[in-house]
Design goal:
By secondary structure, the protein is α+β, with helices and mostly antiparallel strands. It contains twelve helices and ten strands. It has two domains: about 5-180, Regulatory protein AraC (Jelly Rolls); about 190-295, Orthogonal Bundle (Arc Repressor Mutant, subunit A). A five-stranded mixed beta sheet has the order 1-3-8-5-6. A five-stranded antiparallel beta sheet has the order 2-9-4-7-10. The longest helix has 26 residues, at about 155-180. The protein is globular. It comes from Sphingobacterium olei.
Length: about 300
């Protein structure tokens, strides 16, 4: 079986039967699809696809997972993953949200945090049923993105980007709740990762190493590191550093604090230690970063 690889423009033309204009930005688009959608067999996408089913059902394959998506369910197909969709019911109706990774990374959210949001763990089927309130809220966001991109309103890309970010955060939230409530043994690693992230968010100004957090959890550093890496795609140390840098950026940009004050708030032994840490992650010194925000 030959797996075809699709860029977003080619996928829109071939499978959604829409011809975007030469000047049309296809980095983010929403399409309404129904039972007339033709089966899509064994393709790989060079973009993210989010499916929100509003009615009926169909069968989907993502990677090695086979599942049916029914009304009020949401699924995300990550790039470079074998994807198929077929067996549509007569009343099938859904929204397809297509966006490129670069589209969301151009926003104000730190790129490393976006990588975490976009990471879809291949160990779990990427589908979740939404409660009525969550479904209605998500459908509203899909419709607003469709409206913004079709009308080409002022700042339509910026507004659409915010809606996409909300959808990604909502998906991750539902994902965490479902996995934490599951009884499968495989979710042990997810629960370790979830607890680790909560501890980091609470203690990042005091603890800077994986070992310190592992000690709080009464686990070995090696096991915590393995769980975090397997579940998020990034190292445990990177998560700690990302959280510290995010807080540093907020303090430097919005509170106009001195470098020494920021260093003290984040628990660094000295200003020079903080400056080396910040520059090592961001590529610029905190002084230079702060001055750029002022200009």
């Amino acid at each position: 079986m030959i797996v075809k690889f699709f860029e977003i423009e080619d996928f829109i033309k071939k499978h959604l039967c829409f011809q975007p204009g030469d000047a049309e930005d296809t980095s983010c688009s929403v399409f309404r699809v129904n039972e007339c959608l033709k089966p899509i067999d064994a393709v790989k996408l060079n973009f993210h696809l989010v499916i929100l089913s509003t009615k009926g059902k169909c069968d989907i394959t993502v990677g090695h997972h086979d599942f049916s998506i029914e009304s009020s369910a949401i699924s995300i197909v990550p790039p470079h993953t074998v994807f198929s969709v077929k067996h549509f019911s007569n009343d099938f109706d859904a929204y397809f949200l297509l966006f490129k990774s670069d589209f969301v990374k151009k926003g104000f959210v730190k790129s490393e945090i976006m990588e975490e949001l976009l990471f879809i763990n291949p160990d779990y089927p990427p589908i979740f049923n939404l409660e009525e309130k969550d479904f209605n809220d998500t459908r509203y966001k899909f419709r607003k993105i469709k409206e913004e991109t079709e009308n080409q309103s002022p700042f339509c890309l910026e507004v659409s980007r915010l809606y996409v970010l909300q959808i990604l955060y909502d998906y991750n939230r539902v994902c965490e709740i479902c996995l934490l409530n599951a009884d499968k043994l495989i979710n042990r690693q997810y629960k370790v990762m979830y607890e680790f992230r909560k501890l980091v968010d609470k203690n990042f100004h005091r603890f800077k190493t994986v070992k310190e957090y592992a000690d709080l959890m009464c686990l070995s550093s090696k096991y915590v590191s393995e769980c975090v890496k397997n579940q998020t795609g990034v190292s445990a140390l990177t998560l700690i550093q990302n959280r510290i840098v995010l807080e540093a950026e907020l303090l430097l940009k919005y509170y106009q604090l001195s470098i020494k004050c920021v260093s003290d708030k984040l628990g660094f032994a000295s200003t020079s230690t903080f400056s080396r840490f910040f520059k090592g992650i961001k590529g610029v010194s905190p002084v230079h970063y702060q001055s750029k925000q002022e200009n």
